[in-house]
Design goal:
The radius of gyration is 23 Å and the shape is globular. The strands form five sheets. Strands 1, 4, 5, 6, 8, 9, 12 and 14 form an eight-stranded antiparallel β-sheet that branches. It has a four-stranded antiparallel β-sheet with strand order 7-13-10-11. It has a three-stranded antiparallel β-sheet with strand order 17-18-19. A hairpin with a 2-residue loop joins β15 and β16. The protein contains 14 helices and 19 strands. The chain binds 2-oxoglutaric acid and fe (ii) ion. Fe (ii) ion binds next to loops. Keywords: Iron, Metal-binding, Oxidoreductase. This is WW domain-containing protein.
């Protein structure tokens, strides 16, 4: 099937079943390979085709099983905080999460989150073929920071998966699609016996209790898609929501602790402390299976951990979404600005898929980061951009022309809106050549009015700088 045939079919209102969506997907892969081989632009209908595939994926998912558990939104209570980190509410993942005092409500700093927190389990979010390391071998170590050896098929498959997550989240939480962007996503490999915490690109065999929004203030919604199955490819490694036990449950907790000592092997002091802590918490485990996904609000209502693997290798794809809009100024700083036509979107796709082959590694990293920030432009047709909303019947355009699209709303609103870059900051930001991009007088109303973003050529990471003072920061808002 070539792209022209598929797009003619779709434009005539054809609804795709799973098989057609897959065939359409592979015809996009072929179109990319052809464009690369012939050194030609990508056919202009490809972005719209991708949108139809994403849309079909979301519709198909609506008919599959799902278990939603509503939870009360939580955030750290500032009074009585035990440390400076706790007072800020942004403690890194740490065992002290267990003792953190919480209060009701969402933090959602800089974002436009809804006030509904939940946990959603989808047992069949992705097909076995989509999770297959035989079909997509590079999924085992996928990161947007290093696409050097990653095929266009794998990158597209990854985008397809993450866009399915984005549309599902927008639908579940009643958010305008335009307000939700992936800030970070990669595949994570856990190997039994590595006796270290996973993360930071390294392999580990567990993840300590943490809150995603505490790791990065701009993570507002999280998802983990599983690529393999517990008790087939690995043992142990439960994903566990770990909740404080309500006061009334204290007696129960002490009973649990006593029980846990029965028939237990001798323990080290460390193990005993961990056991006592766990007995005093409510643990809700999820057993990973191929293609399953857990979607949840990233706040303190959803503290979680990954229990130690006891054998084998476990693969998961976490993704973290933000509702912080990208400041308008950031687009003008990107190597290729905000796309304005379907041709430009097709060009950007080709850059995303092939940049790492035609550019230096530094340049291609910067380009890929841009594409994370432009995700909405890349995956949603331009005519749907004004406050696109995902419904059970499909993506609809907002009726009211006045409906605000935070990505394109007034300069004041976007300049004030924080955004955080996904990469960890490795070194102090370089001092850029100041470029006057904003009105210095407006800084009284908005402390960040003079800030702009740029890509650090050495690391490829985006950083932010004050165009008047030259002050720099790897994170937004600047610290
Ligand atoms: O692998 C998992 O199940 C969860 C990973 C996780 O919590 C994270 O990456 O933040
Ligand atoms: Fe997490």
């Amino acid at each position: 099937m070539d792209t022209a045939t598929v797009s003619a079919m779709l434009e005539s209102g054809h609804r795709m079943d799973e098989e057609t969506a897959d065939r359409a997907f592979w015809s996009v892969v072929q179109a990319v390979d052809k464009a690369e081989a012939e050194d030609k632009p990508l056919p202009v209908e490809v972005p719209t085709m991708l949108h139809h595939i994403f849309e079909a994926d979301h519709q198909l998912l609506r008919s599959r099983d799902q278990v939603r558990t509503n939870v009360t939104c939580m955030q750290p209570a500032l009074e009585g905080a035990a440390s400076f980190g706790q007072a800020l509410g942004y403690i890194m993942d740490d065992i002290s999460h267990q003792d953190l005092k919480l209060k009701e409500g969402r933090k959602c700093e800089g974002g436009t989150c809804c006030e509904a927190c939940s946990r959603n389990v989808f047992p069949t979010f992705a097909s076995k073929a989509e999770c297959s390391l035989a079909t997509f071998p590079e999924l085992a170590s996928f990161t947007f920071n290093d696409l050097e050896k990653t095929s266009a098929a794998t990158i597209l498959q990854f985008v397809r998966l993450i866009e399915r997550v984005r549309r599902t989240m927008a639908y579940e939480y009643g958010l305008d699609l335009a307000t939700l962007l992936p800030l970070q996503t990669y595949s994570r490999k856990y190997v039994a016996g590595t006796t270290q915490q996973g993360g930071g690109g390294g392999e580990g065999d567990y993840v300590i209790l943490h809150t995603d929004e505490a790791t990065h203030a701009s993570y507002h919604y999280s998802c983990v898609v599983y690529l393999n199955t517990q008790n087939e490819e690995f043992t142990g490694g439960n994903f566990v929501f770990n909740d404080p036990l309500p006061a009334a449950g204290q007696e129960e907790a002490e009973k649990r602790l006593e029980e846990s000592y029965k028939n237990a092997p001798p323990m080290s002091l460390e193990e005993e402390i961990a056991r006592a802590r766990k007995a005093r918490r409510d643990l809700i485990p999820f057993h990973p299976t191929t293609g399953a996904a857990v979607i949840f609000s990233s706040g303190w209502e959803n503290m979680h951990e990954v229990e130690k693997l006891t054998s084998g290798t476990r693969y998961a794809v976490p993704s973290f979404f933000t509702t912080c809009p990208v400041p308008e100024g950031a687009y003008t700083q990107m190597a290729v600005g905000k796309p304005k036509t379907d041709e430009e979107i097709a060009d950007d796709w080709l850059h995303l898929l092939l940049a790492h082959r035609v550019e230096s590694p530094q340049e291609s990293v910067g380009r890929v980061k841009e594409l994370l920030m432009k995700w909405h432009y890349m995956t949603t047709p331009l005519e749907h951009h004004k406050a696109a909303r995902v419904t059970a019947d499909g993506l609809v355009k907002a009726e009211a022309a006045a409906a605000a699209d935070p990505v394109t709303s007034s300069p004041e609103a976007v300049a004030a809106a924080p955004v955080e870059v996904p990469a960890a900051a490795p070194a102090p930001a370089p001092a850029p050549v100041p470029q006057p991009v904003a009105n210095p007088e407006s800084s009284q109303a908005n402390p960040y009015a003079n800030w702009a973003s740029a890509v650090d050529p050495a690391s490829g990471n985006t950083y932010y700088y004050d165009t008047v003072t030259g002050e720099t920061s790897w994170t937004w808002p600047p610290q």
